[in-house]
Amino acid sequence: MSLMRRAVVVLAMMLAAFLVSSMSAQGIEKPREVVPVFELPGESGAATRRKGAVEAQIEALSARMFEMNDWMYHNPEVGHEEVEAARMLSSELEENDFLVEFGVPGLDPDFNREIIDRYDADGMPTAFVAKHRGKTEYPVIAFVFEVDALRADPPFHGCQHNQQGASMVTAAIALSNVLEENNLPGSVWAIHTPAEEIPPPTKAAMVAAGLFDDVDFVIRSHGTGTQARRVRGGLGNCCLLIEAASYEFKGRPAHGASPWSGHDALDAARIFFNAVDAFREHNRPSFRFMGTITKVGDSPNVINEYVQVDHWVRNADFAGRAELDTVAAQVDTIAMGAAMATFTDVEIRHYGSYYNGTESAWMQALAWQYINEYGDEDAISDQLGSPVGWDEAGLGSVNVPGLYIRPAVSGVPSASGHSHENAAITISPEGHRGLQQTVLIGAVVGLRLLNNEEIRDKIEEEMGQWQQWGIQEGLIPERLVRN
Questions:
Q1: Which region, left, alpha or beta, applies to residue 312 given φ > 0 means left and ψ of -120 to 50 means alpha?
Q2: 65-81 pLDDT per residue, tens
Q3: How does pLDDT run across 397-410, given as a tens digit for each residue?
Q4: Where exactly are the structural domains of the chain?
Q5: CA distances from 390 to 356, 358, 394 (A)
Q6: Residue 321 Rama label (left phi>0; alpha psi -120 to 50; beta)
Q7: Topology of the domain covering 32-237+362-451
Q8: Please, which contacts does 450-458 make with residues 24 or more away whose CB atoms are closer than 8 Å?
Q9: 203 φ, ψ to 5°?
Q10: What phi, psi does 215 have (nearest 5°)?
Q11: What is the CATH topology of the domain spanning 241-354?
């Protein structure tokens, strides 16, 4: 969003918050979770014709979309190593007049240190932003996607990320072509956000680095499921509130024949995990404690000089971020105690904080209209889903309104997430139909946003209301909102 427009929106949000708080002794009222489709502003005949042009574009681009999707299925790459997939998708965009820039300048030094240490990924080299003709004219519609496979042996696309890149790149190309042909105001971007399957959270780091500062609306997908359901507007997340920390225990090495000469970092790690287990029962059932040893010596007859523990504290209570911070600090104390008990040292790094994100009821109304238009009736559920936001770490979707596209395809077999069966869906006839529905829904939602200023204004106003209400209810900290 441009600085001038951002300033106008911020002033409007402040005025709205003041008026609401003045009128209601109860504080800021909760915005509507569901906007009926019939309340959406109508479209002109010209806008309807443009939608037909988008459909024609997607029909022409589908064969290449299937090819890209299937290639990534057969050539999976793990997080921060998505070199060939990023090259293929960026080349496809460049051939269609997108200017592509790789890497993320301005990354937080602590975050960058973390990904260098873990993945040798200085500056996130596989990330890229592609802008159609280099434009940053309001409104900027960004199609965001991941392409990393599960870090298994061998890796595979059990989370269907191969469908994300293929569908979102195709949607960006189709929409940009129609925008250009009709001389519509606005800009179309495509953004690759790497390494979603592994920590630390890359999208939050890219937002913090300013990469999304000029983005006005985000459109995303996640693959082909067995059912489409409408999601309520509001604040929530996919994966619970999380505080992620690295504990590096540093001892003194010694030969196994004379262990009294050393201080064992592995002993410190063992005591840490045992103490955390004892700590569990003193926390509410909403808390989860999850950890693993990521680095350790590989010789049994040497006292370990260095052991790294990766540990997450999670809270299922979406309003429990302050309590999560308290518990995470207590786990830090446990780590320091384990180091003291073994005469070792510990370095503590909190490398990832996962917050709630925002779901727009107005954007969900748009998606619901087109899910019903393009989806299969028997794959559409009447049940409402919970808000999750488009960014699993919260920072992005609490600041930029966005939408997950959930296609409705009949006959998709049931499969658990992160399974080989789930990956196989992506290259099946049902998976290919899911790709077509996803790109149709995503592209026409983007077109509607470009066509209709009234809808854009309603979404931006609603975004400010959810931010203010979320701060009031303790669902997001005020410092998270980037104005």
A1: beta
A2: 999 999 999 999 999 99
A3: 999 999 999 999 99
A4: 32-237+362-451, 241-354
A5: 10, 8, 8
A6: alpha
A7: Aminopeptidase (3.40.630)
A8: 450/139, 450/141, 450/175, 450/179, 450/184, 450/185, 450/186, 451/43, 451/44, 451/47, 451/50, 451/184, 452/41, 452/43, 452/47, 454/41, 455/40, 455/41, 455/362, 455/366, 456/139, 456/216, 456/217, 458/362
A9: -60, -40
A10: -85, 135
A11: Alpha-Beta Plaits (3.30.70)
Single pTM value for the model: 0.91
Cα separation, 240 vs 316, whole angstroms: 5
Kind and range of the H or E run holding 234:
strand 234-236
Residue carrying structure tokens 């890497």: 103
Torsion angles phi and psi, residue 218, rounded to 5: -110, 140
Q: Which amino acid is at 87?
A: R
For residues 291 and 221, is the Cβ–Cβ distance under 8 A? no
User: Could you identify the residue written with the tokens 């004219």?
Assistant: 137
**Which two tokens mark 110?**
């602590």
Residue 478 DSSP symbol:
G
Q: Which two tokens stand for residue 4?
A: 């001038």
Tally DSSP H helices, then E strands, for the chain. 12, 12
Residue showing tokens 């519609």: 141
- Write the DSSP assignment of 138-181 as a string of letters: SSEEEEEE--PBBS-SS-B-TT-HHHHHHHHHHHHHHHHHHHHH
Asked if 217 and 397 count as a contact pair (C-beta separation under 8 A), the reply is no
Query: Radius of gyration of the chain from Cα atoms?
Result: 24
Tell me the pLDDT tens digit for each residue of 188-243. Answer: 999 999 999 999 999 999 999 999 999 999 999 989 999 999 999 999 998 899 99
